[in-house]
Amino acid sequence: MKDLKREKSWIKLYGKVEEEVEQVEVLNEFLLEGEGSESELEHAYERALAILEDVEFRSTLNQPQDELSCILEINAGAGGTESCDWSAMLQRMYTMWAEKNDYKVSVLTIQEGEVAGVKSVSLEIEGDYAYGLLKHENGVHRLVRISPFNAQGKRMTSFASVFVHPMIDSRIEVEINPADLRWDTFRSSGAGGQHVNKTESAVRVTHEESGIVVECQQERSQHMNREKAMQMLKSRLYERELQRQLSEKDQVEAGKMANEWGSQIRSYVLDDRRVKDHRTHYQTPQTEAVLNGEIDGFLKAALMSQETKN
Known about the structure:
- By secondary structure, the chain is of the alpha+beta class.
- It is built from 9 helices and 11 strands.
- The protein has an 8-stranded mixed beta sheet, sandwiched between helices. Strands 6-7-8 form a 3-stranded antiparallel beta sheet, covered by helices on one side.
């Protein structure tokens, strides 16, 4: 049923493009016969072009994992309070983007900063094509601003790393040997009331073979957190397998795009009112809009750029 739904959506999009192009042709014929206006034709042309570009963009989401939900992890870099605050700003940015696109957002794990912000946070963004849209957000995000935490009002630079991987579902099978798992329990932190603070409902699972460690404290019961942690672990292992396959196919650049944590992919320079992606060179002066979740331009530019390379 999911496959059928996806194919029907493509037929619907094609029909929409075809309809808009036909409208342009009709208006052009009217203009040649001395009827209609150039402005009306120009408006129809621009509308058809925008729809065609949107379909072209959507066609880049053509891998099986692209249609999955995702887990987005943010980790503060060196810099103490500044970097923790920047991580919290990124958390808000991605949350607002997700909500504007009708995705469900859940905080899976969070480690608060000592003064402000967060040291690390994992978000589950649930909905069709969440991973496909966000997969190129992997890398280091750089913030430059007049620091609100500096008494002298100095210009400060902060870094935070972002990692996105698909949240697998029942359509994808990942086998894990129970003997490779080590489980630990601990008390959840953050908001949640007495239950969160007094019971060891949070869990941590270590996959001995790969060294991957996953924590979950989202749910109230330890049992539910264990289920979610296993799903997160399977997602991480699936992502690792995807990268191994890319490497085997000699798609080295694609692998670097996803795994090179030291690469600075985007700069947010607030006092100069500029946000620039260093891979695609796409930029905008609308810094406030970007931090409020208006990042579609960056997502589309990254996807189209990668499609061109492939």
